[in-house]
Design a protein that fits this description.
heterotrimer, A alpha/beta (265), B mainly alpha (205), C mainly alpha (266), A: 265 residues, alpha/beta, 2 domains, four-stranded antiparallel sheet, 8 helices, B: MetI-like fold, 0% strand, binds adenosine-5'-triphosphate, binds magnesium ion
Chain lengths: 265, 205, 266
Amino acid sequence: MGRSKISVRGLSKVFNPLKGNPVVALENVNFDVEEGEFIAIVGPSGCGKSTLLYMIAGFIQPTKGEIIVDGRRINSPGPDRGIVFQEYALFPWLTVEGNIKYGLEEKGLDQDEIDEKVSKYIRLMGLEGFEHKYPKELSGGMKQRVAIARTLAYEPEILLMDEPFGALDAQTRELLQEELLRIWEETRKTVLFVTHSVDEAVYLSQRVIIMTCRPGRVKNTVNVRLDKTLSREDVITSREFVETRHKVWVDVREEVMKHYCIVEG
Amino acid sequence: MILTGELIINLIITLFRIAGGLFLAIVIGISLGFAMATKPLVRNFFDPIVTLTYPLPKPALVPLTMVWLGVTNKAAVFVIFLGAILPVIINTFHGVKSVDDRLIWAAKSLGTPEKNIFWKVVLPASTPYIANGIRIALPVAFIVSISVEFVASRAGMGNLISYYSDFGFYDYMFAVILVFVLVAFVIDRVTVAIMERYLRWYDGK
Amino acid sequence: MENEAFSGAERAVSLNLRETIGSFISSAYSILVIAIVWELVGRSEIVPYYFLPPLSDVLRSLVVHIADGTLLYHTGVTLFRAMTGYVIASFVGVSLGLLMARFKSANWFFEPIVALLLPLPPLTLVPAFILWFGIGHLSKIMMVIVACVFIITASTYHGVKNINPYYVWSARSMGTSESKILRKVVLPNALPFIFNGLQVTLPISLIAAFVFEMVSGGSGLGSVEIYSARFFKAPELYSSLVLITLVGFIFDRIILKIRSRILSWY
Ligand SMILES: Nc1ncnc2c1ncn2[C@@H]1O[C@H](COP(=O)(O)OP(=O)(O)OP(=O)(O)O)[C@@H](O)[C@H]1O
Ligand SMILES: [Mg+2]
């Protein structure tokens, strides 16, 4: 195996270490991601999934450990890593089009190229007719699509996605899952995909990382070997899918139950 | 006829004073509010000053600027500036403080360098707050300008009102009051309309 | 943030109280620096005495004039005018607002009046009020009332109209009588809005009385300050400024206290 695209080593994160109540969000997290790999991360709420993505994106610094991307230790955001936030984080003062354009303009592309890309991703995400709307005028699902379009249009090598389909209705969600898979097959980007849905994790990814409840650690990694050339229908009824899904589900359930035990004392 | 000529000249004088004082208050207020929100040193210095001067009824500064700068345009502009700057500072401060971290992060990961974050994210994100500060500052500027012109000015609408009243031209006095009230009303409406136009995107939460 | 209260007072407090007290020592130094610079500049002869007397002279004048009763008298006069007007404006404003919200005819009659008078900068009327009501207490109290009453009316009206009809329906369906609905449902829900109006107008009452006193002379802190300025009595000028700031500060605290006491559930 060659050099990993992303390498997470001994990563820990403590919030408020000096103030009253320190929160250990992550503790000694280790994993590697190969170039072009699609990884799903699942785990109970509050186990530090978002925190993990934020550190890989370079927004916040680890308390201990390091993150290596392309052989370099990262400590700041970079154009190689694009992120789709859990709650969209669209620029409210820009229209749909303005939001998607933003990164392209920062990149310094020429106007024709920008226009072409913007209309491509507007079409891809089914946002036609909403180009000149402001985020406040959109439903949650629409906003989420704009956020995805904004990041995809920027074409980063690594896609960090924090529950990107969480706000979508089931039908749109399936459509966009397939769209994401198609884009991934086409471009072979490295994807880190956080989700609460075990089905979604197994359906999309090549490998599912299951995290423990807080402090988040890697509990288990499950490889997924599905024939992605099949239709959705065939995939989700295949024995492979059902078995893998069960394996992941058992692990996740164990952690979620533990979480409840902690909460209830 | 005499009335119209005097009225227009004095109205222009008053509006210029208000515009000057407000302009300074907005530019300096935004800068200071931003500096206070981002630099603890600046904040620690100005915070107690803001606390102490906030409850001061701003027209009470009129006699002070009168002593400092005499009965001049400069004094009028300065006291309007002093009256109007606090709401701008306070609202800018809160606007900058309430900018969602993730917007800044999103911009950074979409290629915006640190040095442009202020113009690209922080300023646009806090415009609703700044606009609110300006809206609060506007009537304060009017009140202070009228006060300073009543007691320490040789021109302006306030001066004209008290002049006519001193000499018993009450009909003229009421005419001037009416015009001033109308102008203030129109300016307020126009400001609100402009703000609503440019803040269409803001969802008010 | 939730209650949308963009009122400056509340903002100033959250900017200051909550966050400053913790770091008071580290930040209050600016006051100290200003005090020292003030004293030094005042003592040196860089600026004329009437421009900036040393802080110590100001404080001495403050103490002397408080001790001999003059400043207290004038403060009392200003407070009397502001408070009397404010209390009247509160009663009239709240009643008018409730009336307008409950009775269509009252609304029909008063709405245009309030809409016209609300944005009016009331202080332009000072000379007119001198003409109508003289230069004694009455004219100032009237000015305070006019400056405050419509804001209170508008916020009360707004508060009553903004009530979620669901509350009224559910109260009705539980058999609450109409007068009880007003007391038990409508008023408590309008209270935060009414308080916003009362909070915004408290400093306005002070400003109205003060400016009027500056213009008309006679007694009160406003006239003390303007006389001191006209006759270049710098220590008196500064000490009346300190005093009026103090009054404003106390007003601000009082209304916040009352607000947090009464609206603790909100
Ligand atoms: N800035 C912060 N300061 C203090 N604690 C924080 C901060 N950010 C996150 N935390 C805490 O760290 C833990 C992990 O948070 P994180 O948002 O990463 O969880 P998550 O796995 O993404 O949860 P969810 O599935 O609900 O999105 C939580 O307990 C959270 O309360
Ligand atoms: Mg999360």
